[in-house]
Amino acid sequence: MITDPGPRWRKSKASQGNGNCVEMAALPDGRVGVRDSKDPSGPVLTFTRAELRAWLHGARSGEFDDLT
Length: 68
What we know:
By secondary structure, the protein is of the alpha+beta class. The chain has 1 helix and 3 strands; from the N terminus they run βββα. It has a domain at 23-62.
């Protein structure tokens, strides 16, 4: 019997390994989960793919640069 291992969480390849990372995974319902890599059993934020695309577009175009 094969059991579902659950979502495949992954970090950015740019992760420095210092623990300040987020992980993302495709969820079975089509949404994307985001969690703190230091607390894998903690809360998960969920986004639709359209919401994630909108956020990524904003990040790439510098809309959040003032927050860094």
